[in-house]
User: What shape does this take?
Amino acid sequence: PADQLLQAFLPFMPYISMHLFGSSHLPDYLAEFPVLFYHEMGLEQFLPVTQTIIADYCENGGNIFVSGAYVATDLWDNGDVNETDKRFANEILHYTWRTGQASVSGQVKPAASPFPAFDTLHVEYHNTLNENCYAVESPDGIEPFGKGSYTIQRYGENNIGAGIFYRGQRYNTCILGYPFETIKTEKQRNELMNAIYHLSTKQ
Assistant: This one.
């Protein structure tokens, strides 16, 4: 179900997982798309080759949407902290780590930001065992980093940041501390993806 969901967005936004970053043709392929969706699965997914390709893509005007439960924990709290990894998150993707295991409710609410497209988007994601999707037991709490980056979502029970959007001069980024495909309803997924895509491609 998760793969089928992500396939629906491919005509507009390529879904790239880590194993594809070894391809020498990937930069040329990505250049054809205005927004890249990178799904971070598990730890150690922002490897050096991944960071280089994403950074080049963004610096050349590409916009990126990243989601995953370890988008920050992977870089800040994995037992082998690397300053280069943290700079990549801070200076390219424009977010920083606040905490792991940020929520147990599975509920996300909009935060006040300069981006009204997110103002009414409440989200529930799968956080318990179910027949439709894997459960997110340990989402990340993240915060914006640098000028132009803002919190757009918070976890329902504690106001810890769940998502950020960065509006830059050359590119935009959206980072979520929980996996996008675990959102429970098609309506909520479509509304959130449409908001991210249209805001990312808006001049």
Observations:
- The first helix runs from residue 2 to 7.
- The CA atoms of residues 52 and 88 lie 9 Å apart.
